[in-house]
Amino acid sequence: MASTSSTLEINDFAHKDLDDDGREKRTGTWVTASAHIITAVIGSGVLSLAWAIAQLGWIAGPTILMIFSFVTYFTSTLLADAYRAPDPVSGKRNYTYMDAVRSTLGGSKVQLCGIAQYVNLVGITIGYTITSSISIVAIKKSNCFHYKGHDAPCNPSNYPYMIAFAVIQIVLCQIPNFHKLSWLSMLAAIMSFAYSFIGLGLSMDKAIGSEAKTSLTGMPVGPKFSATEKMWKALQAIGDMAFSYAFSTVLIEIQDTLKSYPPENKMMKRASLVGVMTTTMFYMLCGCLGYAAFGNDAPGNFLTGFGFYEPFWLIDFANICIAVHLIGAYQVFCQPIFGFVENKCAEKWPESRFIMVEREVRLPFCAEFDINLFRLVWRTTYVIITALIAMIFPFFNSFLGLIGAAAFYPLTVYFPIAMYIVRARISKYSFTWICLKTLDWTCLVVSLAAAIGSVQGLVSDLRDYHPFKE
Question: What parts of the sequence cross the membrane (predicted)?
């Protein structure tokens, strides 16, 4: 009896670090989930909002931004209930967005979801590589102008900083999974608040006494700006706003970091509310104050619009915060890609030592950590490829607009609504069904229009661009 009791105690102890499905025990809370969301949402999107509002004006700009925030929060609550199926509290866990779609919708929609999700995630990581290099170049310009004078030829290349960003990501990508990223997301969230506050302060200072021209309808049509150009820019601005709320892509993966009690869906809804409210407040302030400061000439990245001059140290600090934040945000968005590929390879080649074996490595003055050769090779290759694509297409606003337009409808609107209709058994042509479908179709039209505008912007950018040349 004593031996049996001892064995049970040992087994109980062994299982304390495991969840009910045998996986590593989750320790996340709504606070850490909120940090992941803020890290994912307040990214490079906030930098383009002053420009976006300049294209749309005082009426349409803030209105469209608020509509995106309401739609995103509403559909995120629907998606949170899809984490467990069939019951949102006690059902089987879905570890990824694709798993949630598979358990509820099945069929070809699983493949469509996978294509939409992972293409979007790859696009975001490319966009973050571009944005981080822009921020580091802004620091170099600021210091150059400060020490050499405002007439100095200060035009550093983006390419070395894209390479430096990629090297940092190669190291961080060896973090095994999302559960180990809470500290990085916390740091990144703090950085996002820091540069947002700095941008707000600089915008307020510039707006006071500013003679910048603003209008209710945005950029006025004139001899140098045709009605056709205004239409394309307005559509691209809508795409940029959609990109600003692109966290549904990783919502299920974030939810999978939460402790099983209280119920994950309740905690995720709270985290989504905190995340969306916080980001919307910053977006409205940054977008509107940035527009008030710069007027119709608002730059694509409003932190680079303060002349790179004085106070140079504050502009430097803000751009350092952006770079640090994007280092963490890159990890939030690439971890689902890594997990998907590694799980598929492990299922297909379970006997492969290259894929399955973890090797313990001890470095001087560092703790021991595990290295997997497949993880090392595959993740390093991924980072290098995204960096190369960023070097070939370093277009900030057009790229963000295209990613936002392509991802917003399928991942933020279509799949959450479709899964809710099936789970809740909503009758076809009922009042609720009509309301949900109206929202669905409206968002589809908006996303298609924004995608067309962003593609036109990319085509325009490519006309006079030569890759890998200064």
Answer: 33-53, 59-83, 118-139, 159-176, 183-204, 273-292, 312-333, 376-396, 402-422, 434-459
Cβ neighbors of 101 (< 8 A, separation 6 or more) are 109, 110, 113, 415, 419
Structure tokens at 139: 């620091």
d(CA 326, CA 130): 10
Confidence label for 213 from pLDDT (cuts 50, 70 and 90): confident
Strand partners, 359: 371
Tally Cβ neighbours within 10 Å of residue 445.
Answer: 10
Nearest-10 crossing angle of helices 182-207, 312-348: 150
CB 40 within 8 A of CB 250: yes
Q: Give the range with max mean pLDDT: 39-43, 86-90, 339-343, 415-419.
A: 415-419
pLDDT digits (tens, 9 = 90+) for 280-290: 888 888 888 88
- Between residues 385 and 210, which one has the greater pLDDT? 385
Cβ burial 447-461 (10 Å sphere, 16+ → b, else e): bebbbbbbbbbbeeb
One CATH from 3.40.50, 1.25.40, 3.30.70, 1.10.4160 for 37-462: 1.10.4160
Q: Where are the domains of the chain?
A: 37-462
Residues 6+ apart with CB under 8 A from 387: 129, 162, 163, 165, 166
pTM to 2 decimal places: 0.78
Question: What are residue 423's phi and psi, to 5 degrees?
Answer: -65, -45
Q: For the chain, what is the total number of helices (H) and then of strands (E)?
A: 16, 4
Residue 335 CA to residue 326 CA, distance in Å, equals: 14
Neighbour tally for 24: CB within 10 Å: 12
The sign of the CA dihedral 263, 268, 271, 272 is negative
In this structure, the number of other CB atoms found within 10 A of the CB of residue 152 comes to 12
User: Which tens digit of pLDDT belongs to each residue from 379-399?
Assistant: 999 999 999 988 887 765 566
List helix spans (H) across 105-257: 108-148, 159-172, 182-207, 227-243, 251-255
For 60-85, what is the mean pLDDT? 91
Listing DSSP states for 195-219 in one string gives HHHHHHHHHHHHHTT------TTSS
**252, 83 Cβ separation under 8 angstroms:** yes
- Please say whether the beta carbons of 220 and 296 come within 8 A: yes
